[in-house]
Structures are given as C-alpha cells and as structure tokens.
Amino acid sequence: MPEMEDVNELILQRIKKLQELRSLGINPYNNTFKASDSSQGIAEKYGTLSAEELAGKQYHCTLAGRIVALRSFGKATFAHIQDNGGRVQVYIKKEVVGEDNYSIFKKIDIGDFIGVEGLVFRTKTGELTIEVEKFNILSKSMRPLPEKWHGLTDVEVRYRQRYVDLIVNPEVKRVFVTRSKIIKYLREFLDNQGFLEVETPMMQPIPGGATARPFKTHHNALGIDLYLRIAPELYLKRLIVGGFERVYEINRNFRNEGLSTRHNPEFTMLEFYMAYAEYHDLMELTEEMMTSIANKVTGSLKLSVMGHEIDLAPPWERLTLKDAVLKYTPIDKKVIEDRTLAFEWARQNEVPLKGDESLARITLEIFEKKVEEYLITPTFIIDYPTDVSPLARRKSSDPDITERFELYIAGMEVANAFSELTDPEDQRQRFLSQETERAGGNEEAQKMDEDFIRALEYGMPPTAGEGIGIDRLVMLFTGQPSIRDVILFPHMRPEAR
User: Domains of the chain (ranges plus CATH)?
Assistant: First the structure.
C-alpha cells in the first residue's frame, strides 16, 4: 500500500472529484444502470471472432464493473473493467462520447464502478475491447487500491481487509470459489447416498459431542446460560433415534481454543451419521467421497500440498494408534504398555504432560506431538483407547479399545469417525468418567447429558458417524498452507489504534 501521507492526499483528491461530480448534477452512487453482458459472456460470444467479423456485425453490449486499470492518451483512454467473471478492456474516445462526457470520465479513478454501453472490437494488438458510446458512474471509490506491481502482500492486512485482497489477488478469489464447489459436491455426494440434510441448534444448554472448551453466552428471555456448539453430534444422533437413518449437517462449530495455521475458533464441519453401519463402512465411504471430490475439483487424484505430492488413489493405509507410534518413533513396545515408562519417555522427548494422565492419554499425546507430521499420504489411524473416546463403541474383542478412526493427509487430521456407542448405561458411565476429569481441572472434558441418555434408552440402531473439517479439506484441494487462507474472515486481534 502507498505511504499513509500519500493515501490521505489521494483520498482528498477523490473527495474533490466527488464534489465536482455532484456539482454537475451527477449522482456518483447511481443504481439505475442495468448490464445485460459480463466479461465472461463477452469472451465466450466474441472471443473467436476476428477484427473484420466484429467490425462487420456491430455487436452491441452493456457491461458493469470496477475499474482496475487506466491508461490515458489525451483524447482517448483505455481501461480495464473487472466483474465477477474476469476483466475486459474498454476504450473511451472524446470524439465518440463528446467533450463534456469525456471530461466527466477523466474524474474516474481506479477502483470506481462504472457501467458502459458500446460496440465490441479488436485493437491492433488483438485484444477484445468495448468502444464506449455511453457510460454511467455507479460508485465512486474513496480509497486507492494497492499499487499494481506491489499488490496487497502483507498477510495480516490481507486477512483483515479481505475485501481488498479479493479485488487485487485473483488467485485468492479462486480459492473461495473452489471452497464453494467442494461444499456443493459434498452435498451432492451425500444426497445421492440417501442422506438427508438437517439443521441442529447452534446454541446448546450443554456443550457436547467433542472434547473442547466452549464459548458461553446468556439468553435473557429464558434466563439461562447457553453455549455455542462445539459439535452437532449429540443432536444428530437424537435424529437417528427418531428414525432418520442417514443424516448430515454442514455446520459452524465454535471452540474457545488457540489460533494456528490449522485452528480457528469458528470453523466449518461436515458431520454425517449412518444407521446399520460401522467404522469400516465409513472408511470405504470416505475414500469414495474424497476421490470423487478430487476428480471434480482438480480432475486428478494427485494433489500438491505444502511441498508434498499426494496420491489419493485407494485403498489407503490403515494403522492402529499404537502401531503408528511404534512405526514413527523410536519408542519400545513395552514402554507404551506401561504408564510409568510411557510418562518418562514423553517427559524426556518434550511431550508436554501435566502428570496425572492415563496411559491412553499419554499415548495419544505422544502420537499427536511425534507422529502426526509423518502421516503425509492418506492414512486411517484406527482403534483409539476408550479413555479418550467417550462417545465411541468399544471393540468386542478388547473393551479398552474403540471402533474409531481419524484420517490424516499431509500431516493433518481431516476426519474423525467411529462406530457409535448405543448402550445407554455404558454412555452414562463414560459421561461420569468425563465429569471426574472435569472436576480434576480438565475444562475440555464433556458434561453429563441426561436427555441424550434418555434418547439412547428409547433405543438407537447400530450407527456409524463421521466429522470432516471443511476448512482443512479446502486447504488440501487448494494447496493452501494456513487455515486462514481458506476462511474469508478469520479471527484476529483488534487493530492497534
């Protein structure tokens, strides 16, 4: 961006032009112009026609957009107008629009919105251009856009002023167009699989469905505290109890946690639940879903993500949590089977612990701190300990392990899924165990939800459920290094004044 003094001077110049336009009886914020064409439509209609063909037919069009470039040559001016589909060049000649109108056009700046009417032709260099016969000023821009050759490169400014980022960095806009397509394809895939899209409460009396610290608010009329949801899981499972056998929700979740390249306190999740299924069924469904989206979004199963070339072709590797720790760390098997040895290994290898963690929790912490970064190719980490999986079904062969998986790609957790716990008494005991953890200082432990227990007591069919982080999924398919690059308005500290 130009220096602040320069910006202030340019703003003053634009204010002066604004006043001059108004003194001439011109409304600089006009909303009566109707455009019948777009830059993309003009390119599609006339892009293959020669200069002679265009001159012979006299193709007339109307277009509206933002001025993003201006080149004046005394009695004529070239400009580029940018709209939702791209850019097109326009050519304004004094002898065509008239001297008075041309002098008005000279008060237009880069950043202003205008509407033009005119004929399509090709310049001597072959560029498709509109020769303007009439124009309307639609919105006067008071602030200058970043300089053409330097652009908007300051990352913090780009996030704070995303509206400017989208104007001057076309590749940023493409990321968010891709994001929209990914969500559309997810919906199409699940709809075709017989799932029903539903909506569940974003404000909940009991935050549940995940291990996380919630945001708290207060409802004045009811006189109760409510929590922004950390997950929709327990409500979606209530719907399974009620007879909806396949449901999904693309939802906003809120977790009162830190910020990083992979975490934002407000984020988007897809959660879906499928009756009469278990976690192996979801692994197969997830492979099918991801490869389908990859083909539609990129046309390939190969992704380039943060310096890694990743092949999504199934089948994907499946490793138990314990085997993953043994494979990617120098830890001995007997160490992760003994709490004292595991705790000492973690301490010596800079895995942060409080000291009262169970063996299962220590193993999970070792995995998250020492193993995740190596899971580049798609990998299902399966069979998590029951202690760290309060909503998942126990394995029949080993009650200390649950039928749960997390999917990792490019070193990131992308999905979390499990065969659901449908036994109300087992679920009650898990909640009680979580309550004990909470009493011991774990603010992220889940609370008892008596109504959810009551729902399970009415009977819930065998079910499998999964959550997929949409933001991280978009990072993968667009090759972005930070979650902030795929969220239009990421949370930031207030600007210093």
Answer: 4-145 (2.40.50.140), 167-329+371-485 (3.30.930.10)
